Amino acid sequence: MPKTIPPDSVGLVAPRHARFEEPLTLECGRELPGFELVYETYGTLNADASNGVLVCHALSGTHHAAGYHTLEDSKPGWWEALIGPGKPLDTNRFFVVCSNNLGGCHGSTGPSSVNPATGEPWGPDFPMVTVHDWVVSQARLADHLGIQRWAAVVGGSLGGMQALQWAIDFPDRLAHSVVIAAAPRLSAQNIGFNEVARQAIRSDPDYHEGRYQARGAVPRRGLMLARMLGHITYLSDEAMHEKFGRDLREGKPDYDFHYGVEFEVESYLRYQGRSFINRFDANTYLLMTKALDYFDPAAAHGGNLSRALAHVRAGFLVAAFTSDWRFPPARSREIVRALLDEDKDVSYAEIEADHGHDAFLMPIEQYRAVVGAYMDRIARGIGA
Amino acid sequence: MPKTIPPDSVGLVAPRHARFEEPLTLECGRELPGFELVYETYGTLNADASNGVLVCHALSGTHHAAGYHTLEDSKPGWWEALIGPGKPLDTNRFFVVCSNNLGGCHGSTGPSSVNPATGEPWGPDFPMVTVHDWVVSQARLADHLGIQRWAAVVGGSLGGMQALQWAIDFPDRLAHSVVIAAAPRLSAQNIGFNEVARQAIRSDPDYHEGRYQARGAVPRRGLMLARMLGHITYLSDEAMHEKFGRDLREGKPDYDFHYGVEFEVESYLRYQGRSFINRFDANTYLLMTKALDYFDPAAAHGGNLSRALAHVRAGFLVAAFTSDWRFPPARSREIVRALLDEDKDVSYAEIEADHGHDAFLMPIEQYRAVVGAYMDRIARGIGA
What we know:
2 copies of one chain form a homodimer. Chain A has 384 residues and is α/β, with parallel strands linked by helices. The first copy, chain A, has 10 helices and 14 strands. Chain A has an 8-stranded mixed sheet, with helices on both faces. In chain A, helix 3 (188-202) packs antiparallel against helix 4 (220-234) and helix 4 (220-234) packs across helix 6. The radius of gyration of chain A is 21 Å and the shape is globular. At the A-B interface, helix 3, helix 4, helix 5, helix 6 and helix 7 of A face helix 3, helix 4, helix 5, helix 6 and helix 7 of B.
């Protein structure tokens, strides 16, 4: 709990809801009969609505990107390191918007929402949504907010994929795209990890083929395993070594078959796994991992990413972290190379950090400086 | 099935059993009231019993390292690439021995064996065994076979750790130690992956706190998940890309919530997971992962590996594979450096291979050449 809210925080914030009645035809071919998005905003939209910045969240993120909901909150929003007055996404200059993705479980329409056709939770009947669908739904939110063109669309990891997709799908509706710790498509290894997570959830007897909610059940074991596995891939080997080493909680092995927690890393992973159960929905997790697996803008162009990016008009900042092995710098460089092939305006930063993929969430000086300088250029361009 | 057995195979082989009546006090402090090891041998022990080579198996390996049990076998033993007449472990020159580790599930005494005290399977009451315990039990097998001193103890991965431990525990009972794709201790990330695998097994409702055998149950879901996860760590990102890429089995996404197999990599992992259920015991898997986590010969010397190796007398070949991210070359170099610090006789080879950790099982030319040359030197030394 923050005793006092730090002066560089956006402070107390409250989520808002937007309802969209017009049906949405999704990439999978199915139609969603209207939907709702929950979102937060930080800063003030200027008179010509030119200072809007859309922040897109990653796999387990939410619309709560910055500030606090109450003075009792133990933690601020997930991107407090970057969003706030005087921070890289400077809320004195920008109107920052973050929504919970469609299919999410924090207030936007998703598998745990009620299906109007049945009066029951959608569960596994919720249509599969893709990164493209998210971008289209976010464009409706932009309309709702009176923002014709974002000053920037910004995101890390799966959020970076949305920033990239925005530039492809709506070339005229964003001035800049900031793509952090992302990849133009998942590798077979990435898909493999997602598949193990999905199998963990789906093989949990409490999953009930996705209809656990109607049964009053929660596939806790599966969610916990999925999250534990995820966490290993978010940290670098080096970061785990720094954080836990081989430290034994009791100082020595207990050599028994009860498999209690012995190493500190076991304690950390179990804690992360357990706490996830109470804040995430299993069907949403499945859907988000599938959206990741499917993401591949080059696929429609015979695998040629340059061709997929031929019509983008945004300027790009692409950033990667040296110790990220989930989406290593080499994957970001693929995006940069494809943009350069098409003579696009692109800056690239490879940031020295030993935190692994999670670095994109952290207050790393070089990282904040790189994003801050780029955003400053944008702000000057619009007189903000 | 081999239509004809290749001339460089050891051919048809049969496992043998050795029973040891003398109780064995284990590192955990508990005593095993006698035990049995199943093993195979290839080649002929020479008159002075100087050409014995002990092969140690890895996590999911067995005593069946080479040749075929029947002409109908679909596959030979797990190290057919290296063991046979004219191969690096040349059975025309060496008497090669491989036993199933104590605590295993392929014929040696382990959790699925009957506990003489109760007449029931040991299950979770089986004592925890360590790499040191394996080495001690293998020394009894050496006595049984009349081998006072091995020409070499050889192994990959967890097998390499046994080869290292042999040199520490019985400096006078081996002339050479061949440590392939191993590490002097697990990293926090390694332990993390093991912990997820253990949680997958232990959270399976069919695990019954380890007493599944008495209940006629098998924790299939947990074993499958553990194996799927293992397989991702055995392959390099590059190898998975080569093998599967992002190929969709049906050529296009099916966008449905049934989560059938879509990507080839999903099909591979599910197949590997399912086939493991029928050939491996869950309690053994738990125990083997713990033996890995505990392995840390430097721990007794304040973390100083050189000190742990001060009294070894064996010559060493240490080998690592460039794309192995489970036990990368840097981990092997720690062993090499510690041996050099103590002026020990050590050769080191870093082998170019994009197969990941699994490379140690494969017929890679440079790998076979390196091991072959080292073993040839040993054979010449003993006139074999």
